[in-house]
């Protein structure tokens, strides 16, 4: 870390403003076209077509086996009279509201602990990441019964304290809870992103603050939090998008049924069962586009709110 | 890989989605569509082989290996036909099949199941096999009928299974309970015996495992009462009372301790044959399809036995039936229907194929073939074959082909049974809801 | 932001000089004793942290250990004796599982490796390019395009897979790896674009401005400044793409129709039959086998996660 670059940073803000305005007026249109060319090609050739097709299908009666028939907005109006759909909506919202904050908090805390300062950290990081490697393996369903079943590990543990547990994973009142735990258990991905984010914070800030006499708490609040905020924001946005589309874990643990008694019927799982199980792809497409509206709305709110708490260094 | 004639046919077949076609036109050259063709009327008169056909099925590794061996044997006999295997698990199979049909890219020989065959047949996906050269003369008429609708023969049963009670005699004798006489026992006897075993057996060993997740049990009870889950013309044929009684059995077992509590029942239900009560030596009885006896026996490490379902003697008539394990079907848009038919014929009628497959796709429906493999069966499957021969005389008829949408009925039954087990619905309420939901699904 | 500037307000030379002087004056008896005590305290808290981390690690690992134990048991004992310690060790699940499907398991491992390799390269190249544009370039409609990009990951795959299949089928790409790899080269994985945008924006802008004053164009800035400095983001992208592609079941199931093209997740599913018999022993054994490559990639790849600006340094 050479010290020569520090003075240059010191005087930045004013100069940056000036330069920014010049950049705007000049524009980087041609360079942007070059850098965005692959993405743009993908959008036109691969992403947009199927998306538009599914939007069209959401206005049709489509059983996959015969050509779709236009029925107008009927699929959309049908949704709100479908008690199982409304249940799926409620299950999904509950899941997102509970599991996203817990998972983010835990993964950030562990990223801080595992960042540096201890020996064997690479090993711990790998061990903690292992559960996330399992993905949607069918083994997870069996594993989860081993832990949360009537004779599972949790109940054996509770028995030590004289508490008689019950089958958690297969009880309509608790099954969703075990899925939240499962999701938290696979906190590896946001943790890794946090770790990478921590490592990108220039060390010179901490050094400078140390010399200034700042303590660890103060350094955390005044350096780590603001400089990590773009990454916190990224994890928040993507976790919300991802949790609304949660599918694999419920599919695997409930054996594809969303049971017991629809208690783990996530939105996307219901949509999948309607589309492929009941061969009602028109209805499934309508649900998907309604979901896009919900997620899109949440993401827009997130972006608007980010102006007040996310710090960018550009 | 794909020849021009396929492309031409698909172009003709593509009624298609205009928007999708527009969106994709740039790269597709216009012959795209989200709907498969149904117009293909007659098979092409001449078929040019060497040719390649695709055969799709679901299952686990033992079936994949056996089927590959059959394909190898077939190709050795028919060097001009190449059979491409396309296998996956049960869940993935239907997703993949529906997707490929939607894109007019269906496999040539398709494995079907009774819950879905009507959906695919009525929408013109499957070819009428009566017009193809497949020998079905040695297959029992009533079994063959399970693959027929008014419009033709859309599937040929690969083999048959029976829904039956599997028992673990060791648990019976350890509990000091006698095995029931399955020619005379009633559903009340079944509940009573299960409760008795739970009471006498050690802690954690139960009389039976809940049966209410499978609508096949409902169908048998309905038939014993002279009803049927579905009628010939694809309507619901069961009364609310029968459905309520079906759910009530589970509640009686729960109350009497004959089966585990609701949460544990759910858990065991999700664990398949290997994790079932019988499979883990913690239950004396369970109601299963006969082809699952092998897996249960292997998991339990014990000599399990098969009994008839209760209530066969005290009802209006017998309710048990032989269910086609699965069907062989041929795609209506297959480019090589004759080669496909030849392969299906081989699967059904070749002694070599039968020797490799044994009872993996149910006990062969072809009676001559069945005779030929009896000596090669392992102990559990010999038991199955003997059991089927024994009940064959009492089976009155086959239930009609389940109507369109019957794939949902499995899910409806499972969900409502859960609601009953957790006492969120009474059997009467569940029965009402069952009738409403099933009517909506098959309507 | 104001907090940040106060905290990082740079020490005037006087402060730094005083710090240096204090350091130079070290080696006296008193601070040395304090240092020793501090070191001992650090060792104790370090040990304490290790114990906590190990305990937590065991909770994380229990299910995996159970799977490993089960893969070593004779198949029929997996559910009858579900304990963690096998009563008898049986390696036949591994040998049986390896050869249980139509092709040896190595075929599926190799296929997965090819798909993963293509996907990783594709994502690294295409997503970083798009991210550079969104993070650093000023162009008309930037926010709109960004929103469209995010929108593309908000639709569940189940409703776009059928139209996608139609598209790839028209291109004659079914049963090749192309539908799995080519989209990655066209930056369809918006997750990673967004990820890299966030990281690129964390790189001090003065650096590329300085480079521009030195006469560098955008390509040079992207290649020489952004990519090296965003190494953690690139490593994250590579590792995640590897793991997620390795585990991705649905699209590989749909687009690959011949067993000799099957990948690991599709092959693993073929061990299971919910309507009949499942070879749990083989399934667990091959799951363990398929975990090894991803675990190794993570173990060695994470070295690059922690090589941020902190270690590469800004010169």
From TrEMBL, chain A:
Residues 1-23 are annotated as: Disordered. Gene3D superfamilies: MetI-like. GO terms for cellular component: plasma membrane. The chain crosses the membrane at residues 31-57, 93-114, 126-144, 174-199, 220-244, 285-305. PANTHER family: ABC TRANSPORTER PERMEASE PROTEIN, ABC TRANSPORTER PERMEASE PROTEIN YESP-RELATED. Belongs to the binding-protein-dependent transport system permease family. This is Sugar ABC transporter permease. The lineage of its organism: Bacteria, Bacillati, Actinomycetota, Actinomycetes, Micrococcales.
Automatic annotation (TrEMBL), chain B:
It comes from the Bacteria. The lineage of its organism: Bacteria, Bacillati, Actinomycetota, Actinomycetes, Micrococcales. Pfam families: SBP_bac_1 (PF01547). The keyword Phosphoprotein does not apply. InterPro entries: Bact_solute-bd_prot1 (IPR050490), SBP (IPR006059). It comes from Antribacter soli. Keywords: Signal. This is Extracellular solute-binding protein. Residues 1-28 form the signal peptide.
UniProtKB/TrEMBL annotation, chain C:
Residues 109-301 form the ABC transmembrane type-1 domain. InterPro entries: MetI-like, MetI-like_sf. The keyword Membrane applies. Keywords: Cell membrane, Membrane, Transmembrane, Transmembrane helix, Transport. It holds the Pfam family BPD_transp_1. It is a multi-pass membrane protein. Gene3D superfamilies: MetI-like (1.10.3720.10). It is found in: Cell membrane. The chain crosses the membrane at residues 47-69, 108-132, 144-168, 180-200, 221-246, 280-300. GO terms for cellular component: plasma membrane. One of its GO terms (biological process) is transmembrane transport. PROSITE patterns: ABC_TM1. The keyword Transport applies. Belongs to the binding-protein-dependent transport system permease family. This is Carbohydrate ABC transporter permease. It comes from Antribacter soli.
């Amino acid at each position: 870390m050479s010290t020569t670059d520090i003075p240059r940073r010191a005087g930045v803000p004013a100069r940056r403003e000036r330069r920014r305005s010049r950049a705007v007026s000049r524009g980087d249109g041609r360079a942007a076209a070059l850098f965005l060319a692959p993405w743009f090609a993908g959008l036109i050739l691969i992403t947009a077509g199927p998306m538009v097709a599914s939007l069209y299908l959401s206005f049709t009666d489509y059983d996959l086996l015969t050509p779709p028939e236009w029925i107008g907005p009927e699929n959309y109006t049908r949704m709100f009279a479908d008690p199982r759909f409304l249940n799926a909506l409620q299950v999904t919202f509950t899941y997102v509201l509970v599991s996203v904050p817990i998972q983010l908090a835990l993964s950030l805390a562990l990223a801080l602990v595992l960042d540096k300062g201890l020996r064997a950290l690479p090993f711990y990081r790998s061990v903690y990441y292992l559960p996330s490697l399992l993905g949607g393996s069918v083994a997870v369903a069996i594993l989860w019964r081993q832990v949360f079943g009537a004779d599972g590990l949790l109940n054996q543990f509770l028995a030590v304290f004289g508490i008689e547990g019950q089958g958690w994973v297969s009880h309509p009142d608790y099954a969703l809870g075990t899925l939240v735990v499962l999701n938290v258990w696979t906190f590896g991905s946001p943790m890794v992103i946090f770790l990478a984010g921590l490592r990108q914070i220039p060390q010179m800030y901490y050094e400078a603050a140390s010399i200034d006499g700042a303590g660890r708490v103060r350094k955390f609040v005044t350096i780590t939090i603001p400089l990590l905020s773009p990454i916190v924001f990224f994890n928040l946005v993507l976790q919300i998008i991802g949790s609304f589309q949660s599918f694999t874990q419920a599919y695997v643990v409930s054996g594809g049924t969303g049971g017991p008694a629809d208690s783990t019927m996530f939105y996307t799982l219901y949509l999948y069962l309607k589309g492929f199980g009941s061969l009602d792809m028109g209805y499934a497409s309508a649900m998907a586009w309604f979901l896009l509206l919900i997620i899109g709305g949440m993401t827009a709110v997130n972006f608007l709110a980010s102006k007040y708490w996310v710090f960018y260094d550009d | 890989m794909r020849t021009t004639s396929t492309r031409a046919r698909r172009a003709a077949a593509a009624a298609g989605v205009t928007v999708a076609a527009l969106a994709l036109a740039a790269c597709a050259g216009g012959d795209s569509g989200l709907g498969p063709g149904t117009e293909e009327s007659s098979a092409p008169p001449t078929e040019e082989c060497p040719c390649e056909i695709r055969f799709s099925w679901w299952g686990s590794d033992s079936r994949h290996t056996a089927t590959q061996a059959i394909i190898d044997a077939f190709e050795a006999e028919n060097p001009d036909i190449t059979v491409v295997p396309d296998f996956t698990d049960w869940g993935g199979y239907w997703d993949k099949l529906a997707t490929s049909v939607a894109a007019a890219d269906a496999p040539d020989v398709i494995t079907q199941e009774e819950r879905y065959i009507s959906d695919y047949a009525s929408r013109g996906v499957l070819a009428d096999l009566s017009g193809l050269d497949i020998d079905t003369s040695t297959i029992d008429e009533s079994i063959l009928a399970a693959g027929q609708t008014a419009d033709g023969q859309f599937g040929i049963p690969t083999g048959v299974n029976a829904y039956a009670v599997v028992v673990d005699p060791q648990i019976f004798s350890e509990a000091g309970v006698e095995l029931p006489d399955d020619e005379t026992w009633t559903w009340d006897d079944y509940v009573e015996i299960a409760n008795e075993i739970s009471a006498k057996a050690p802690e954690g060993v139960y009389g039976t495992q809940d049966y209410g997740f499978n609508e096949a049990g409902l169908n048998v009870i309905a038939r014993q009462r002279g009803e049927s889950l579905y009628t010939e013309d694809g309507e619901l044929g069961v009364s609310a009372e029968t459905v309520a009684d079906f759910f009530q059995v589970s509640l009686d077992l729960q109350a009497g301790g004959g089966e585990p509590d609701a949460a544990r029942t759910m858990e065991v239900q999700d664990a398949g044959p290997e994790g079932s009560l019988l499979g883990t030596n913690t239950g004396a009885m369970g109601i299963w399809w006969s082809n699952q006896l092998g897996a249960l026996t292997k998991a339990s490490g014990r000599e399990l036995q098969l009994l008839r379902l209760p209530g066969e003697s005290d009802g209006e008539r017998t309710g048990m039936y032989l269910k086609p394990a699965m069907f062989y079907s041929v795609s209506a848009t297959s480019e090589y229907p004759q080669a496909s038919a030849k392969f299906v014929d081989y699967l059904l009628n070749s002694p070599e194929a039968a020797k490799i497959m044994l009872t993996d796709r149910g006990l062969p429906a072809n009676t001559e073939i069945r005779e030929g493999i009896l000596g090669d069966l392992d102990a559990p499957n010999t038991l199955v074959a003997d059991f089927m021969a024994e009940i064959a005389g009492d089976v009155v008829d086959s239930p009609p082909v389940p109507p369109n949408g019957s794939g949902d009925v499995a899910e409806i039954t499972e969900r409502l049974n859960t609601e009953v087990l957790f006492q969120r619905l009474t059997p009467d309420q569940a029965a009402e809801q069952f009738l409403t939901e099933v009517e909506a699904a098959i309507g | 932001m104001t907090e940040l500037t106060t905290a990082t307000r740079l020490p005037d030379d006087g402060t730094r000089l005083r710090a240096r002087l204090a350091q130079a004056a070290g080696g006296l008896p008193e601070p040395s004793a304090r240092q020793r005590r501090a070191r001992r305290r650090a060792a104790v808290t370090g040990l304490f942290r290790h114990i906590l981390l190990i305990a937590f690690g065991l909770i994380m690992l229990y299910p995996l250990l159970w799977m490993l134990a089960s893969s070593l048991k004779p198949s029929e004992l997996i559910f009858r004796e579900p304990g963690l310690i096998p009563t008898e060790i049986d390696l036949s699940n591994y040998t049986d599982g390896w050869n249980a499907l139509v092709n040896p398991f190595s075929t599926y491992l190799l296929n997965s490796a090819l798909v993963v390799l293509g996907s990783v390269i594709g994502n690294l190249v295409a997503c970083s390019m798009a991210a550079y544009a969104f993070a650093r370039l000023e162009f008309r409609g930037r926010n709109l395009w960004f929103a469209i990009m995010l929108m593309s990951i908000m639709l569940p795959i189940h409703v776009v897979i059928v139209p996608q299949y139609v598209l790839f089928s028209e291109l004659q790409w079914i049963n090749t790896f192309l539908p799995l790899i080519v989209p990655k080269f066209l930056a369809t994985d918006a997750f990673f674009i967004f990820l890299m945008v966030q990281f690129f924006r964390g790189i001090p802008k003065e650096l590329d401005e300085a480079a521009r004053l030195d006469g560098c164009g955008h390509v040079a800035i992207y290649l020489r400044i952004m990519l090296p400095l965003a190494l953690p983001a690139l490593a994250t992208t590579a590792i995640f793409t590897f793991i997620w592609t390795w585990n991705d079941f649905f699209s590989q199931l749909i687009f690959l129709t011949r067993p000799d093209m099957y990948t690991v997740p599709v092959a693993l599913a073929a061990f299971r039959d919910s309507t009949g018999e499942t070879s749990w022993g083989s399934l667990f054994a091959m799951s363990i086998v398929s975990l090894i490559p991803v675990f190794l990639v993570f173990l060695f790849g994470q070295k690059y996660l922690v090589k941020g600006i902190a270690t590469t340094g800004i010169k």
